Amino acid sequence: MARIGTDIDHARRLLEAGELVAIPTETVYGLAGNALRADAVAKIFAAKNRPQFDPLIIHVPDLGSVPAYAADIPPAARLLAEAYWPGPLTLVLEKRDIVPDLVTSGLSTVGIRCPNHTLTRTLLQSLAFPLAAPSANPFGYVSPTEAAHVNEQLGDRIAYILDGGKCPVGIESTIVGFEHGRPVVYRLGGLSVEDIERVAGQVSMQTNASSDPRAPGQLKSHYAPARHLILGNLPDLLQQYAGRSVGVLSFKTSYEHHDNIILSPSGNMQEAAQNLFAALRTLDKRKVDVILAETVPDNGLGRAINDRLRRAAAG
Ligand code: TXA
Ligand code: MG
Question: How far is residue 82 CA from its own chain's centroid?
């Protein structure tokens, strides 16, 4: 198991030595290494068992650091960064040569994000390089929103876990690219499409590429628990599965079932997003045959929650 703590200096020294450290962000925990060192980046792919065709995003302390790694910042990208960084938004920009091809899986673009978490921002400010960091979970599994989640699955493969508590957003960043200067959403996430459109005008969606995905977060089956998850109308599903051992994941309704997790009893979407991945992990550990789940209202963060539920159901 990895050491867990809040020692930013220890994390910095390990990263400077090319080692991996799990870092907290407002979205999910990341598995971080020096983005400018191919040997450190290779360790990330290996620890996650992640195929090298799936590019990593890099984390920077502020917008001012971006020109060192991106060749061009379209006006819409700048507006979005000014409005929402630090925050749950990844911008896909044309990369500079200094970013190793291993980071971007050979793409000419790189995903860049400025995370909103005090520990990690302090860490980033103390480093002379950006951090490549995918979510700190084995490839294809649910992302970690607590240090303990990271330790359970990757604890023996990383030197240190920087413990920043529970991730307040709970769902990965929204990924936005630019085609002819216009924003394109590649992955729904912790920043809503409505918020993006308010600043950058109408966006187009490319979140469902099936083959050769631009973002493998676009893979139909991803973010999946080990147990089979069935999405639908819960009262119907409960009838259909009567007598079977089931876990129930509901938005705000209580189904008076001992394995029922309610994402937000008050129907608060932010709270539901925050609890989603931990709930999937908890139900995964119970001895149930299947997890029955329902979608949430399809607006704001609800769209990203439903996206993750659909991909979990396809797993
Ligand atoms: O919230 C987050 O984004 C978290 C925290 C740790 O920052 N990170 C995260 O990384 O979710 P990861 O690797 O699990 O997901 C990043 C997604 C992947 O699906 C990857 O395919 C996509 O970003 N991506 C990376 N570079 C890209 C690029 N140049 N163009 C399009 N998609 C890209
Ligand atoms: Mg991931």
Answer: 21
Q: What pLDDT score does 211 carry?
A: 47
Q: Best of 29, 161, 175 to mutate for ligand 1, by most ligand atoms within 8 A of CB?
A: 175
* Sheet arrangement for strand 174-179: 3-5, 160-162, 21-23, 30-34, 131-132, 57-59, 109-113, 89-94, 174-179, 182-187, 204-205
Q: Which atom number of ligand 1 is nearest to the Cα of residue 30?
A: 6
- 275, amino acid identity: N
27 pocket-lining for ligand 1 (C-beta < 6 Å):
yes
Q: What does the pLDDT look like over 277-296, one tens digit per residue? A: 999 999 999 989 999 999 99
Rounded to an integer, what distance in angstroms lies between the CA atom of residue 231 and that of residue 24?
30
Rounded Cα gap, residues 115 and 173, in angstroms: 9
Residue 33: both structure tokens together:
């290494």
